[in-house]
Amino acid sequence: MRGGTFLLPGVAAFFLLSSSSSEGPPPSCMQKYSDLNACFAGPNVLPSRTSLFMTFAMKPNPARFLQDLHELRQIGAAGIGKGVQRRAFSAADLTARSWLADRMRDADLTPHIDPAGNTFGLADGRSLLVGSHSDTQPEGGWLDGALGVVAGLELARAAKDAGGPPISCVSFQDEEGRFGVLTGSDIWSGKLALADADRFYDTDGVCFADARTGIADIAGEFLPHDMFSGFLEMHIEQGPYLDETGLKIGVVSDIVGIRDMTVVFEGRQNHAGTTPMHLRQDAFQALSKFNTLLNDRLRNVVMPTTVWTIGHIALHPNASSVVPGRAEFSMQWRDGDADRLARMEKVIRDTASEVAKDANMSVNFGALMGIEPVAMDQRMRDALEVAADQQAPELWRRMPSGALHDASNIATVLPAAMLFVPSIGGISHAFDEDTDEADLVLGLQVLATAAEALAS
Ligand code: GLV
Ligand code: MN
Ligand code: MN
């Protein structure tokens, strides 16, 4: 079973503990990125709560920002175009977090990793948090997540260089759902208990609890939310709209909600040569019929922006001479309206049950996971719109996000907002995801202008 925020009654544990220490930061570990322990070695030092409220014009450095983005894409480089393979808690992911901790320390930020693997670079005092995630899909692009993380790092550095305002950066863990749905930010926001996440398994049978032993020795506490005044996330659009219209910036109004569950058809495994067609209980045929019926029935329920996907299928025993006895698959659907998500769930469950009954099979549904649709914070949106109008007049627009983002979770505990830049050809979750570097830099500048206005 893959995990996420369970939409079942239950109490989510809350892991927020505050702490402070007067000890200095651990020694630099610039020389190597492979030793994550060394990078977070020493006591869990949280910065003092003394704020610097002097404000100066921040000047993000585009060359430094682009160089770091390219350095980060070398960690887990797929060897195909600019593609990256850096799944949550893989060796590449841990190396990337170590690299990030070094960059943070170089910038006089305090690196801090929490028990879920969320990696923060903390400024002194209460700060604006800027970031995203640095884990990737199994076949990921170089910008999905990494862009927002390096933009956060660059803004935190530019703020330090300018003497303020205080900006911290973050890379959340497992945004891409190896184990859950936005797992790291789901846990940090308090909606998902760490103990529940620990029981989530990836599709290879590895559980979250085992995966996170890689950081057990260096993880500190979960940080209190009130260390931060708000959260800004820059991201590629991951869709075609900005690219097709020639616009450069999207200011996100809302992020869709998602539902995700595993469905299993159990039929009868048998010989593919001797079992007559009319006697078969073929689990793949059931899945195929379900898919066709579902596409037809959902048409009465959905909007043009609604999407649904069967993205992972495991047939058992998955052999060409065996009638498959078991078909397990992921069923995911997304929409901006929670009621529509619920109506879709009913159609999905009813259709699967009907197909199973007709084929004399059983069907089982896994735990329903999800993230609610969420609106971005109006004040932060306004700041992004003012900045977009200054830096990219006539070249920006408001738009909803069909992709999920850590901001979905963080918006439940902090004011949160998001900025998009174009994705060439609307491609993402694929090795050939890309964005013109001039668009990346323009997005950074808009983000910096908004961040300075918000954090001062
Ligand atoms: C996040 O990557 C998503 O699947 O929307
Ligand atoms: Mn992403
Ligand atoms: Mn993604």
Strand and helix layout:
Blueprint: H1 36-39, H2 62-74, H3 91-106, E1 110-113, E2 119-122, E3 127-133, H4 146-162, E4 167-172, H5 183-188, H6 194-197, H7 208-211, E5 228-236, H8 241-245, E6 249-255, E7 257-266, E8 270-271, H9 283-298, E9 307-309, E10 313-316, E11 322-323, E12 326-335, H10 338-358, E13 362-365, E14 369-371, E15 374-375, H11 378-391, E16 396-401, H12 406-410, E17 416-421, H13 437-455
The structure holds glyoxylic acid and manganese (II) ion (MN) (2 copies).
Give the beta-strand count. 17
Rg is 23 Å
Tally of alpha and pi helices:
13
Cα(first) to Cα(last) distance is 45 Å
Mean of pLDDT: 90
Class of secondary structure makeup: alpha+beta
Helix share, percent = 25-40%
Features:
alpha+beta, 32% helix, globular, disordered N terminus, binds glyoxylic acid, binds manganese (II) ion
Briefly summarize what is shown.
The chain is α+β, with helices and mostly antiparallel strands. It is built from 13 helices and 17 strands.
Q: Overview of this structure, please?
A:
The protein has helices at residues 36-39, 62-74, 91-106, 146-162, 183-188, 194-197, 208-211, 241-245, 283-298, 338-358, 378-391, 406-410, 437-455; strands spanning 110-113, 119-122, 127-133, 167-172, 228-236, 249-255, 257-266, 270-271, 307-309, 313-316, 322-323, 326-335, 362-365, 369-371, 374-375, 396-401, 416-421. It is of the alpha+beta class and 456 residues long. The longest helix is centred in the last third of the chain and has 21 residues, at 338-358. Residues 133, 144-145, 175, 235, 405 line the site of one manganese (II) ion (MN).
